[in-house]
Design goal:
mainly alpha, about 130 residues, about 55% helix, elongated, two-stranded antiparallel sheet, 2 strands
């Protein structure tokens, strides 16, 4: 039996974040049809998919599954994506991080810098050597 609240939240969150079913299916590494089945209640996502969805939307698992859409917390960092931020993925933890254009430029510059320039940047920013 489908969780009616989850089905409603999946559709409303996707709409609020301007995602298509195809975009979400790519983020979840599933087919668009599989994702569509979640929104129609034909299938229930496994726990790993539910956790990934809660991470994508920056909400708790409880909010995703049980809380009415109108009562969800709107204070999470994911709300920043509507501003001048770009999402990225922290490789080690799988967390989503949101960066400004300036931060993206700095990171790209750091990656292209020589080892000496990287060392200097870490020193200026007071970041210990790794």
């Amino acid at each position: 039996m489908a969780n009616v609240q989850l089905v409603e939240n999946l559709r409303r969150l996707r709409d609020e974040h301007n995602y298509t079913q195809f975009q979400l299916s790519k983020k979840l590494n599933i087919s668009r049809q599989a994702y569509s089945n979640y929104e129609t209640g034909k299938r229930v996502p496994d726990i790993e998919t539910l956790l990934r969805l809660s991470d994508i939307y920056g909400i708790s698992l409880e909010d995703l599954i049980a809380r009415p859409f109108s009562e969800m917390s709107r204070t999470s960092v994911s709300r920043e994506e509507k501003g001048p931020y770009s999402p990225g993925l922290v490789i080690k933890s799988g967390d989503t991080i949101y960066l400004t254009e300036e931060e993206l430029i700095l990171l790209k510059g750091y990656r292209q810098a020589s080892p000496d320039d990287r060392r200097l940047a870490r020193k200026v920013l007071e970041i210990p050597d790794t």
